[in-house]
Amino acid sequence: MNKVPLTVRGAEKLRAELKKLKSVDRPRVVAAIAEARAHGDLKENAEYHAAKEQQGFIEGRIRDIEGKLSNAQIIDVKALDLHGKVVFGATVDLLDPSSDEEVTYKIVGEDEADIKEGLLSVSAPIARALIGKEEGDVVNVEVPGGVREYEILEVKYI
Fold first, then answer.
1. Which CATH architecture has domain 4-75?
2. Buried residues in 120-149 as b, exposed as e (16+ CB within 10 A)
């Protein structure tokens, strides 16, 4: 399987979620199943079926996170000397010259992406257009509404 890029922050969030799933959620659902079993007839026991469904979800998520972490390539941009080049993990300040609007994005792995928080997936069109560029460069990005132009104001490795 191919390595999946993750930021240090993204890997820490996945590890924290995994720890919570194993130490809090899994024991809670096991206790709920045991309690539901104590109520008798399992065929018509809604609590039992709901708890079993939740257990399946939790176990699936645990496997998913463990798989992602085992195939993760954790990239710490603070440790690299990149001289203002846009790379995975970089935070980029952009200017849209047509609207004079400034935006800031951090380029992250697909699982970490959250556009509302300015976390842009490495596979997004804007991120793909920015990778390899430097401060001062102007990039044209093909978006569903056409082509947008951005000027790279600053590249940070935070």
1. Orthogonal Bundle (1.10)
2. bbbebebbebbbebebeeebebeeeeeebe
Amino acid at 19: K
Antiparallel, parallel or unpaired: β 4-7 and 72-75:
parallel
| Measured distance CA(148)–CA(101) in Å, rounded | 12
Report the distance separating Cα 158 and Cα 144, nearest Å.
30
Residue 9 has pLDDT above 60, yes or no: yes
C-alpha dihedral, 33 to 39 to 44 to 49, nearest 10°: -10
pTM: 0.77
Higher-confidence residue of 72 and 77: namely 72
Tokens read off for 131: 């990778």
42, two tokens: 């399992």
Domain boundaries, the chain: 4-75, 77-156
* 93 vs 67: CA distance, rounded Å: 33
Residue 69 phi/psi, 5-degree rounding, is -70, -35
CATH no. for 77-156? 3.10.50.30
